[in-house]
Amino acid sequence: KIDEISIELEMQSPYTKNDIDRFRRELLQASRRVFFEPEYVACPGCGRTLFNIESVFSEVKKRTAHLKGYVIAVMGCIVNGPGEMADADYGYVGEGKNKVSIYRGKDPIFRAVPEEIAIDKLLELIESDAKSGIFMPHF
């Protein structure tokens, strides 16, 4: 009885072993089989976005890069953001001028958080949940 068949092709490639290994990791993560790093969801921003989403997203990525197995969203507005980030574990969602909501899954945990401390609040929630076992990352 054969349970699994595996075929390996060997061919010349302009890619290095590191390139191929990186591709394998990215493919496994994209298929959600294995997480090697956090996964991010973000919107491009629109007229309702009242903060610099590109710089916030960059800062969130930098400060959460160690959180292997988490799906983190940065969304521009409260209108579409929560629906578009429905699969995320945590979210940073613009709520109004200089205000942000911090989500765990589909639930807003902190509302009207001043933008200056919102990333800290997001990290505080993630770390608190990890310590208490409320949320376990995907692996």
Features:
alpha/beta; Sulfite Reductase Hemoprotein, domain 1; 35% helix; 139 residues
What's the topology here?
Layout: H1 17-30, E1 39-42, H2 53-64, E2 71-75, H3 81-84, E3 90-96, E4 99-104, E5 107-114, H4 115-132
Parallel strand pairs: 1-2, 2-3
Antiparallel strand pairs: 3-4, 4-5
* Individual helix count: 4
Shape: elongated
What is the CATH topology of the domain at 36-132?
A: Sulfite Reductase Hemoprotein, domain 1
Q: Determine and state the CATH class of the domain at 36-132.
A: Alpha Beta
Strand arrangement, major sheet: 1-2-3-4-5
Which stretches are low in confidence, meaning pLDDT under 50 for 5 or more residues running? none
Q: What is the C-alpha radius of gyration, as a whole number of Å?
A: 18 Å
Question: What helical percentage do the residues reach?
Answer: 25-40%
Termini separation comes to 31 Å
- Helix and strand succession? HEHEHEEEH
Rounded mean pLDDT is: 89
Explain how this protein is built.
- There is one protein chain.
- With 139 residues, the chain is α/β, with parallel strands linked by helices.
- Helices cover 35% and strands 22% of the residues.
- The protein has four helices and five strands.
- The chain has a five-stranded mixed sheet with strand order 1-2-3-4-5.
- It is elongated, with a radius of gyration of 18 Å.
- The model has no long low-confidence stretch (mean pLDDT 89).
